[in-house]
Structures are given as structure tokens and as C-alpha cells.
Amino acid sequence: MKLKEQISINDFDFQNIETDISSLNIKKAVITHYLHNRKNGVKKYFEKDANKYLKEFLSQIESNLYDWEISLKDLETQLALEVENVPFPNDELYTFKFIDLFSGIGGFRIAMQNLGGKCVFSSEWDKYSQITYKANFGEVPFGDITKEETKKHIPNGFDILCAGFPCQAFSIAGRRGGFEDTRGTLFFDVAEILRRHKPKAFFLENVKGFFNHDKGRTLETVLNVLRNDLKYFVPDPQIMNAKNFGVPQNRERVFIVGFREDLKINDFKYPEPTDTTKTFADVKEKDGVPVRYYMSTQYLDTLRKHRARHESKGNGFGYEIIEDDKISNAIVVGGMGRGRNLVSDNSLRDFTPETKIKGEVNREGIRRMTPREWARLQGFPEKYIINKVADVHLYKQFGNSVAVPAIQATAQKIIDTLGDKL
């Protein structure tokens, strides 16, 4: 029968039903992963649970939301349209499969899909990032990757593991620093997935400080596990800067790649810079921005006094205004991630505050960058959907993300190195 309205996976959540949120998110993740893979062999890893959850969803719809009946096939068809009608759908004409761990808002995924990859599993615990990820890729990521309930859903047979895992110290206590010594850290979970599934390659990303974290013991342990315990060829990690790959941001990150030992790959070269010409003018808003992004006179005065105090002590800490012909500092989570990336923009005409502020809106045109400008600094395409949530969540999402062009340039080198082994 013809349905009266579009049904969304978001409807699988009713006010009058007592449901554990983590359990509900797993169900949504299973269903959307199944729908993305129902035309290929990966669907078998999700099909049994997906059918169970779809029947549960159907029962809830019939008893709680609608006064008419639909079939299980109708429900699946409707939800399939939802997961496919997104800015970045999975392409069935893929050349390799990858998984997206600590996926954030999908920077790795965009890069890998651009190169012909198909994502067969994603995982991200932050609920606001999950919402953004689903809006752009039609898929609800699985949650906490440290839990076996999450790991058990990872399909076999994927080619590349991608992960921008957080930096944590290990309690090696004088020991060699092997696989067992990484327990209790998020790297352990990455290593455990590599051990179980043995993909052909991996691509890991971390902050620049990872090189010297815990006096170098963290990196030493990671490389020992990857090379000696898990048997991957791992060339020396390299610090890559986003500013060399077509985005105007001075963002240095550690990249670590590896290839399964039996593939007999023993050489890899990280990409050379591809585009160093971009400046902030290339990403700056052209049509003006809302008044809420402009600093109040009192807050701007506080920033200036704060910087003056540090300068008097010989420190360089403080706010910074990025001129149009310059590149931004690294965008990071936290107040100074925005304070060190202020811009000058005299396009504002209405200085009436949108919210209550101390002082009045400054007339010098000094404002914060917008979330869309941060998205552009990370190389996200214009069609990328920025959800209508509080800006604090958006800054966190883009500040924690990877720079897509730098990831894509390196991923291309990984694919080229694998060659006909994919």
C-alpha cells in the first residue's frame, strides 16, 4: 500500500518506550549498515540482527505511531531510500573496502570514498558526531569500540583499516612494550581489530605530540606492536601538514601506515606537497555572517589585556587575527582554538546583539571563524551538511577531524603501493 508519510530511522525512538540508548543506537547502526550493504556480500554480517530489529521497529510503528499497517518490505524500502539519499552515498562500483574507526564526522570516509573505497563499518561514540555522520553518509556509526558488542559487528574481508585514535600513555613498567602492555588504551582496540581481521593495510592518524608522548615510549610501543607482534611492514611515521595539500591551515599531524607482511611490500613514500597556494581568503564567507560571531568590546578588551600580560613575560600566548592573505593556525577544540583564529570582516551592518553580551558588538570587524569556515579549513566539500546543533559541538567536531586533502593524498599512495594486491 502507499505510505502516508516518509518513515525515518530516527522514528525508531519513542517517548513512551523504555529503551536503553546505547542498545537503541546499536540497532540503528545494524539496520543502516545492513541497508548500505544489502546488494553485496557484506550484508550477511548484519542481516540476521537487522531483520530482527526491523521487525521490532515495524511493531513499534504499528502500535505507537500510525493507525495503519505497512509491510516489512515497505519499511525496508523506505529506510533504504533514506540511507541512500545523502551527500556522500556508498558507491557500489567500489575497488576496495575499508572500516572507519573513531570516525568523528567522516573525514577519512570522504577521502577513501573519493578514491573508490566502500565503507563497510564505522564507529564513533560521540552522539553529536553520530548525528552529523548519519546526515552525510546515511549511516549511524556503532558506538564504543572498546566493547565486544561493537567489535563483533565488524565484517571480515575488508582491505584497509582507518583510525584517528586518541593519544594515550602505556604502563610498560620497564617491560618490552608489546601487545599486552597496551591494554586499557584505545590503541589496544585498534591492534586487537588488526590481529583478528588482518587487513592488507592500515592508516592511522594522531596529533604531532604523539612523537614525543611519554618521552617517546608511546610511539616506540605502538611501532613494536605493529611491526613485531602483528607482522606489518611499517615505514617510519611522518608528520604531514595540511597546508601542503590545498587548505590554508597550519595543521601538523602524525601519519602511520602499514602493510601486511605477507604482501612483500617493503617500500612506501609519503606524498609530496600538492598545493601550497591557498590562503584564508579562499575559505572566507563571502556573504557576511551573523552578528553572534563578532566579539563584544569587553571580551575583545579582555583578550588584548591577556596577550599583553603574556608578552610582558616574554611569552607568545594570546589571540591572533588571521589576515586574508595568510593561513590559519591549527583549529583545535577549546577556547584558544578559536581565539588564535580570529578574522577581520567589515561586512556587518546590523550590530544588534542576538544574545545578551557584556559591552556592545565591536566596530572593528573582529569576529570568530564560522563552523563552515572551519569545515573548509579541513577540506570538507561545500555539500557537506552541517547540522543545526550548538556551535560548540560543531567547533568540536571540525577541530577533532582530519584534514581531508592530506588524508586523501596519503591514502592514494597506500592504494598505489598495494596495486594489484587490492
Detail the poorly predicted runs: none
Fraction of residues in helices?
25-40%
Shape: globular
Number of strands: 12
Order of helices and strands: HHHEHEHHEHEHEEEEHEEHEEHHH
In terms of structural class, how would the helical and strand content be classed?
alpha/beta
Q: In this structure, how is the largest beta sheet organized? A: 7 strands, mixed
Q: Termini separation (Å)? A: 44 Å
Strand content: 5-15%
The value of Rg in angstroms is: 23 Å
**Overall pLDDT:** 90
**How many separate helices?**
13
Description:
There is one protein chain. The protein has 422 residues and is of the alpha/beta class. Helices cover 35% and strands 12% of the residues. The chain contains 13 helices and twelve strands. It has helices at residues 21-36, 47-65, 72-84, 107-114, 127-137, 148-151, 186-197, 217-229, 297-312, 335-339, 371-377, 391-400, 404-418; strands at 96-101, 117-122, 160-163, 201-207, 232-233, 238-241, 249-250, 252-260, 321-322, 328-329, 342-344, 366-368. The strands form three sheets. Strands 1, 2, 3, 4, 5, 6 and 8 form a seven-stranded mixed beta sheet that branches. It is globular, with a radius of gyration of 23 Å. The chain starts with 20 loop residues before the first helix and ends with a helix.
